[in-house]
Structure formats: structure tokens, C-alpha cells
Design a protein that fits this description.
By secondary structure, the protein is an all-alpha fold. The chain has one domain (about 5-170). The protein has eight helices and two strands. The radius of gyration is 20 Å and the shape is elongated. The mean pLDDT is about 85.
Length: about 170
């Protein structure tokens, strides 16, 4: 029996909250360290704050300036707002395009997957194959479920549950 949309949304919210809290604890250690790091040598034209932002951005696998972050400590002060935008809550959400454009691409993406699953299946079961409604509901809430951990390590060391529409929508 499929879960209700409300149950799926509540489960996703609990997941996102848990992952974001875990990542916040890690960043509570790393951000102060990065924010106060002093390089052995600094080139004349290098901006220390910019170097710190780049280091933190590589850890978070994003360009922080794209999200209005101008100094490392802002990652902590703006964390609740920033986490879902940078995937620190374990999900991926496209920020480009209107809701309607993203929804149309998402439907196209899921329909293409379903079509190809049917093509690869045995003919006698082909018409019974479909993407579960629970998954379609989840795909309507986020564009991917990436998993646990700080984005740099998560993206380089572990598989995602669902990379989702990331390449298809981009």
C-alpha cells in the first residue's frame, strides 16, 4: 500500500533534519579551524578570506559566494537556510528554472526511466512495470537523495540513494 504524500513529506523532513544536524556538528569543528587558519606564506595578491572560503567551499563541494556567503563563519550563522541549498541536508534540489519547468522535466525524466525499464524487461511482464507512486511523490519533493555526510566526502566515497534529475535537469 502506498504511503500518503504527507507521510512521505514527513519522513523526508525527518531525514533532512537528521542529516543536516549531523553535518552541522562536523562544521562546528571545521569552520572555526578554517576561519582562523593562517598559511605559511601568502602571495601578495592572495586574499586570505577568499582562500578560507575556497577551502570551506571545497569541503562543501560548492562555491559559497553563489549563496551570498562572504566569510567562513556565515556558514554557521546561516546554516539552517544554507543547508538545503548546498545539499548538507542529504538531498539535491535544482534551483534553476521555474517550478513548472522543473516539474515538466522531472515527469519527462521519470517517464524515460519507466520506458527504458519496460524495454529491458521480459515481454510477458513489460506492462506491469511502473515507477512506484511513493517514488514519484519523493521525486516531486526533491531532485535527488544523496545520503549522509559532508558533501566532499559523501560525493567521493559513497554511493547516493538516488542521484536523481541532477544531470537530466541541468
Amino acid at each position: 500500500m502506498p504511503s500518503s504524500q504527507e507521510d512521505i513529506a514527513a519522513s523526508l523532513a525527518a531525514y533532512r533534519s537528521f542529516i543536516a544536524a549531523q553535518n552541522r556538528r562536523v562544521l562546528d569543528v571545521y569552520v572555526p579551524f578554517i576561519a582562523t587558519a593562517e598559511p605559511d606564506e601568502l602571495e601578495d595578491d592572495e586574499d586570505l578570506n577568499e582562500l578560507r572560503l575556497e577551502a570551506l567551499g571545497s569541503l562543501l563541494d560548492t562555491t559559497l559566494a553563489d549563496f551570498g556567503v562572504s566569510e567562513p563563519n556565515e556558514v554557521l550563522t546561516c546554516y539552517d537556510e544554507l543547508a538545503p541549498k548546498i545539499g548538507a541536508d542529504g538531498t539535491y534540489v535544482m534551483h534553476e528554472g521555474s517550478h513548472e519547468e522543473r516539474e515538466a522535466k522531472r515527469r519527462e525524466y521519470l517517464d524515460e526511466i519507466e520506458k527504458n525499464l519496460k524495454l529491458k524487461s521480459r515481454e510477458d511482464v513489460r506492462e506491469t512495470i511502473s515507477i512506484p507512486e511513493d517514488f514519484r511523490t519523493l521525486a516531486g519533493l526533491v531532485d535527488g537523495v544523496l545520503g549522509y555526510g559532508i558533501p566532499f566526502w559523501r560525493n567521493t566515497t559513497q554511493p547516493a540513494f538516488w542521484w536523481g534529475c541532477r544531470r537530466y535537469l541541468g
